[in-house]
Design a protein that fits this description.
Protein name: Peptidase M23-like protein
Order of helices and strands: HEHEHEEEEEEEEEEHH
Shape: globular
GO molecular function: metalloendopeptidase activity
CATH architecture: Distorted Sandwich
CATH superfamily: Glucose Permease (Domain IIA)
Structural class: alpha+beta
Distance between the termini: 31 Å
Domain M23ase beta-sheet core: 92-190
Number of helices: 5
Strand order of the largest sheet: 1-2-4-11-8-7-6-9
InterPro entries: Cell_wall_metabolism_enzyme, Dup_hybrid_motif, M23ase_b-sheet_dom
Pfam families: Peptidase_M23
């Protein structure tokens, strides 16, 4: 299966269940250098970053935030997890983020089984992470859910069935979610390779064509217009 076949299968699939169902409208968020307001804030402390997102960008949590696929994000400059390789710092975002309050339930967009899961417990990492595997006809692909609550991992086992529309996880609080403002990192993956419970969600600009070929825009499933 190549990227165009996966993208076509996702476009033609009639209906995906909403992953977040809290009834709030969506607002697109920009974490690139093009957001001049962002550059005036010191977001190195998670509490300040979270207050900026929810109080200012989302007008006191009146909205869910969404966006990020293919963004060249300046926010990673404060996270050693993305800058440890000084020659190839990572800043290109490969998923779509949904910014919503900690504890927000998450629902499976379509039938799935659990591929793998892990607690990626490093500052700036995914924190609790679940990867599901799906089939549409003869097309197999994966979805990754990062920055979850630790309780989301309870009772899981590889191969567990998750039904379409089933609540299977929740957005986690910081610091257990990788020490980020509460949000879901949602990513579609064509081929997991040897990864289990983890997969790059941010890459170096020089590698973006390779990863874009593995990870189509998650909006193909989310279908949220803002």
């Amino acid at each position: 299966m190549n990227m165009s076949e996966l993208a076509q299968a996702l476009r033609e699939y009639p209906t995906f269940h909403a992953i977040v169902q809290n009834g709030k409208p969506y607002r697109k968020l920009d974490f690139t250098a093009g957001n001049s307001d962002l550059l005036t804030h010191d977001l190195s402390e998670t509490v300040d970053f979270s207050n900026y997102v929810f109080d200012e960008m989302l007008s006191g949590s009146a909205f869910n935030g969404i966006g990020g696929y293919g963004e060249d994000r300046v926010i990673y400059r404060h996270r050693k997890h993305f800058t440890a390789d000084s020659e190839k710092p990572r800043s290109i975002h490969l998923g779509v983020d949904i910014w919503a309050e900690a504890g927000t339930p998450l629902y499976a967009p379509l039938d799935a089984t659990v591929h793998s899961f892990a607690f990626n417990d490093h500052y700036g990492d995914y924190g609790p992470t679940i990867i599901l595997v799906h089939e549409i006809g003869e097309t197999t692909f994966f979805t990754l859910y990062g920055h979850l609550s630790l309780s989301s991992l309870e009772g899981l086992h590889e191969g567990k069935t998750i039904n379409a529309g089933e609540c299977f996880a929740a957005i986690g609080p910081y610091p257990e979610n990788g020490d980020w403002p509460p949000h879901l990192h949602f990513q579609v993956i064509r081929d997991m390779g040897n990864y289990r419970g983890d997969f790059p969600g941010v890459c170096n600009a020089s590698d973006q064509d390779y990863y874009f070929n593995l990870c189509p825009d998650s909006e193909l499933i989310l279908r949220i217009n803002v």
